[in-house]
C-alpha cells in the first residue's frame, strides 16, 4: 500500500457562529477503501507483505453492511491479493447477491464464508479454525483495530490539524480515536462519538493509545446500525446545505451530535473544531434499500 497522492482537504462548514467547524475529508482517499479503514489497514498489510511474498491471502470478519469488508475487498483487488470475508449470519448465504456491500466485495474478488451468529460471536475459536485452514494468511480482526492500525491513524494528523482545539471522530471499535489521541498535540481535546453502546470501550481505547481515557460522547441513536428518521433528516439537510454526504452509521450520527453540542453551549466561544469524515458512504446504498422496504425517507447519496 502506498500513501495517497492527494492532500486530504480540510473544509470549513460555514456557521455564522463564534465557533468554527471544519471537516477533514478522509472519505475522499479512495472511492471504496475510504476513510479511517485505509489507515487502519496500512501498516498491517505492508508488514504482512514484507513477510509473505508468495500467495498472500487476507482474511477478515464483518456484517453484511460492513465498511471494513468493503475496504478489504477493494484493497485486495487493487494490490492483486486474494481476500476471504467471514460474514455474520448464515441466513444471507443464499441471498447475498441482493446486498450491495457484499455484491461489490464479490466483484472485487472476495470469497465468503457465512457463519451463524453464535459461531461469529466466538472470535477466538473462529480465528483458530481459519488459522489452521490458511496458515499463511493475514487474519485481520473485526474492524481492524490493533496496534498497527493505531499507528496508521497518525497519517490522519498533520501540520494543519495542529491548530484545532477539538478533534472529533466517530467510534466503533476505538482504533481510530485511539490513534488520534496518541498522535495529537497535548493541548488538543479529543472527543469520541460512540455509535455502539459498549461500556468497555473507554478502557480498550486507553490501552490502544497508551494515554489516559478520553471523553466518549453517546451517539448511538438507539443502537449500532439503527437509523432514526431524525438523523436521516439531519444527514439530508447537511448534504443540501454544505454539499457533503454523511453515512448513517458513523459520520451522520457524530455530526448531528456535534450540532447539538454547539446548541447546548458545550464548546467554548472562539474554539476551532475539526471533525474527521471517516467515510462509510458505501453503506448508504444498503441502508436505502432497507428504508425503501420500510416506506421511509431515503438518504441522499
Ligand atoms: C469503522 C468506522 C469508524 C469507526 O472506527 P473504529 O476505529 O472502529 O472506532 C468510523 N467511521 C467509519 C465511517 C467507519 O467505517
Characterise the protein shown here.
This protein is α/β, with parallel strands linked by helices. It has two domains: 159 residues, 3-Layer(aba) Sandwich (Rossmann fold), CATH 3.40.50; 108 residues, Rossmann fold, CATH 3.40.50. Helix content is 38%, strand content 17%. The chain is built from eleven helices and ten strands. The strands form two sheets. Strands 1-2-10-7-8-9 form a six-stranded mixed sheet, sandwiched between helices. A four-stranded parallel sheet has the order 5-4-3-6, with helices on both faces. β4, α3 and β5 form a beta-alpha-beta unit. α9 packs across α10. The longest helix has 16 residues. The two termini are 28 Å apart. The mean pLDDT is 96. The site of pyridoxal-5'-phosphate has 20 residues, from α1, β7 and α7.
Largest sheet: 6 strands, mixed
What would CATH call the class of the largest domain?
A: Alpha Beta
- Helical percent range? 25-40%
Quaternary assembly: single chain
Q: Remind me, CATH topology of the largest domain?
A: Rossmann fold
Cα end-to-end separation: 28 Å
Keywords: Pyridoxal phosphate
Family: Belongs to the ACC deaminase/D-cysteine desulfhydrase family.
Protein name: 1-aminocyclopropane-1-carboxylate deaminase
Domain Tryptophan synthase beta chain-like PALP: 17-279
Brief rundown of the structure:
The modification N6-(pyridoxal phosphate)lysine is found at residue 37. Helix content is 38%, strand content 17%.
Amino acid at each position: 500500500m502506498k500513501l495517497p497522492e492527494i492532500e486530504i482537504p480540510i473544509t470549513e462548514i460555514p456557521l455564522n457562529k463564534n465557533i468554527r467547524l471544519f471537516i477533514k475529508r478522509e472519505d475522499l482517499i479512495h472511492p471504496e477503501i475510504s476513510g479511517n479503514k485505509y489507515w487502519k489497514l496500512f501498516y498491517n498489510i505492508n508488514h504482512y507483505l514484507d513477510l509473505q511474498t508468495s500467495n498472500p491471502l487476507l482474511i477478515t470478519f464483518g456484517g453484511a453492511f460492513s465498511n471494513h469488508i468493503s475496504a478489504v475487498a477493494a484493497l485486495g483487488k487493487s494490490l492483486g491479493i486474494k481476500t476471504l470475508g467471514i460474514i455474520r449470519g448464515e441466513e444471507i448465504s443464499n441471498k447475498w447477491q441482493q446486498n450491495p456491500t457484499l455484491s461489490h466485495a464479490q466483484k472485487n474478488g472476495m470469497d465468503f464464508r457465512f457463519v451463524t451468529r453464535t459461531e461469529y460471536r466466538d472470535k477466538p475459536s473462529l480465528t483458530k479454525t481459519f488459522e489452521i485452514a490458511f496458515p499463511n494468511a493475514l487474519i485481520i480482526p473485526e474492524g481492524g483495530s490493533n496496534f498497527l492500525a493505531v499507528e496508521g491513524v497518525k497519517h490522519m494528523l498533520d501540520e494543519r490539524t495542529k491548530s484545532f482545539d477539538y478533534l472529533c471522530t466517530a467510534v466503533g471499535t476505538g482504533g481510530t480515536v485511539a490513534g488520534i489521541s496518541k498522535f495529537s498535540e497535548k493541548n488538543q481535546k479529543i472527543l469520541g462519538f460512540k455509535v455502539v453502546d459498549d461500556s468497555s470501550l473507554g478502557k480498550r481505547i486507553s490501552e490502544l493509545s497508551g494515554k489516559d481515557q478520553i471523553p466518549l460522547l453517546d451517539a448511538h441513536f438507539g443502537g449500532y446500525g439503527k437509523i432514526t428518521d431524525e438523523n436521516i433528516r439531519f444527514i439530508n439537510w447537511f448534504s443540501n446545505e454544505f454539499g457533503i454526504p454523511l453515512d448513517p452509521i458513523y459520520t451522520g450520527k457524530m455530526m448531528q451530535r456535534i450540532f447539538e453540542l454547539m446548541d447546548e453551549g458545550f464548546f467554548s466561544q472562539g474554539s476551532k473544531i475539526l471533525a474527521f469524515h471517516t467515510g462509510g458512504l458505501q453503506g448508504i446504498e444498503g441502508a436505502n434499500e432497507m428504508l425503501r422496504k420500510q416506506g421511509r425517507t431515503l438518504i441522499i447519496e
